[in-house]
Write a structure and sequence with these properties.
It is built from five helices and ten strands. By secondary structure, it is α+β, with helices and mostly antiparallel strands. The longest helix has 23 residues. The mean pLDDT is about 95.
C-alpha cells in the first residue's frame, strides 16, 4: 500500500493503526506467551516455543523453535547449548533493541545501525547454596549501546531511556513480577 510509512523497516502506519485499535478495544493488547522445556541429560535441557495467544486469538502458525540449554564444562555441562542466564541477556538485548527501534521509528528517527553489549555478574555461591548472603541470580547487569543516527548524543540518550521505559523484558527484570511454580501431580 502506498499509504504505509516504513521507517527502519517498521511499518509505522500499521503501528499507529494498532495503537488506535487497542484504544478502541483494550482486550486486543492481552497476550499470553508460552514455552515448554524437556530435560535431556546432565545439565542439558531443551526449551521450545510454538504457539501464543494475542490479538484476541490463538496463534499456532509458526513452526516450533527449539533452544538448547546447557552449561560449559567448568559448570558440569557439555556445551550442548548456552546456559539460561546467557539466554536472559539475549532476551534483554532483543527487547531493548526492538523497543528502541520501534519508538525511534514512530518518531521518524532514521537509524543506520545499533550495536549493544550485555554483561552480567553472577556469584555461584548463591546457586550452590554456599552462602545465604549471595544472591542466586545476577547481581547486576550492564548494557552499552552504540547508535548510528543523525541525532545528538542527548537524543540518543533519550532513545535509550525510552527503550528501557517500554521494554517488557527490561521491566520484568527490574520490577518484581509474580512467578508461580507448581508440580503437575500424577506425572
Amino acid at each position: 500500500m502506498a499509504d504505509n510509512k516504513i521507517v527502519n523497516g517498521v511499518n509505522v502506519s500499521q503501528l499507529f493503526n494498532t495503537i488506535e485499535a487497542i484504544k478502541g478495544n483494550p482486550a486486543i493488547a492481552e497476550f499470553k506467551f508460552r514455552a515448554t522445556n524437556r530435560w535431556i541429560d546432565g545439565t542439558h535441557c531443551r526449551g521450545t516455543i510454538k504457539d501464543f495467544y494475542g490479538a484476541l486469538k490463538e496463534d499456532d502458525s509458526r513452526p516450533p523453535m527449539d533452544y538448547d540449554m546447557d552449561e560449559p564444562p567448568v559448570l558440569l555441562g557439555n556445551n550442548a547449548g548456552r546456559n539460561p542466564v546467557e539466554y536472559l541477556l539475549v532476551a534483554l538485548s532483543g527487547c531493548l533493541t526492538t523497543s528502541l527501534v520501534a519508538h525511534a521509528s514512530a518518531r521518524g528517527i532514521k537509524i543506520r545501525g545499533i550495536r549493544s553489549k550485555y554483561e552480567g555478574d553472577l556469584d555461584l555461591r548463591g546457586f550452590l547454596g554456599i552462602s545465604e548472603d549471595v544472591p542466586v541470580g545476577y547481581q547486576n547487569i550492564r548494557v552499552y549501546f552504540e547508535i548510528d543516527a543523525d541525532v545528538s548524543d542527548e537524543q540518543k540518550e533519550e532513545m535509550v531511556r525510552t527503550a528501557q521505559k517500554y521494554s517488557p523484558v527490561f521491566n520484568t527484570l527490574t520490577k518484581s513480577v509474580p512467578v508461580s511454580v507448581r508440580l503437575n501431580k500424577g506425572k
